[in-house]
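U., I forgot to send this yesterday:
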Amino acid sequence: MSSRVLVTRPQPGAGATARRLDELGFEAVVLPLTEIRELAVDPLPAASPIDAVVVTSANAVRHAPRELLSLFLDRPCFAVGAETAAAAGKSGFSRVAAGTGDAAGLARLVTDTLPPGARILYLCGRVRLVGVEDRLRRKGMHVAIAETYDAPEVVYPIDELTDRLGSAPLDAALLHSARAASGLAGLVSLPGIEPLFAKTLFLCLSDRVAAALRDVGEGRVFAAPTPDEAALLALLRQRCGNGA
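Result:
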């Protein structure tokens, strides 16, 4: 019997993760705990003073208005990690550099490349890594914020929740965001749900995500060594084997 792994990230990422789990021999249980909602960017920032674009989420690029992106596709784009860099490339940016997956690495990449005084357009979600803009501003850069999406929590009726989770215990849960981790922390003790999580391993994209589960599953919360899905899935294989 395959190990059951809970996928909590929003669509379309949840579907992509589920397919990867299937290829690895795991049974994916998809329960998005956040959903992506596009935000209007109004007014659009002027193109002329912007020297480069910074992106900390693939969703920030996917949900940016086309009329906004078209103004800046010829500028260098600095992405937090490989997945976000790939999304930027698909959106039309021709000069994309990828960071190491965290705020510090991205800020270092930008400040090592651009001079103080550079003007940055930061494409991001309403909930974002403020460490990026703070670090850039401390280096003398000017940062304009364009929030292109929000990711509110999803609340499920108890009958839908039990139907989605099924009756068999969950061997592991993958957490890609602190908001999803916080949402899961509120679910695991619900009557009828709690037994499913009695031995679940909570595998998190980063220490920041893991911190949201500090009161849940003592000794069963682990963070990936680097904040990317490849490292998260490697952690899953390390802790749960190859799925069977």
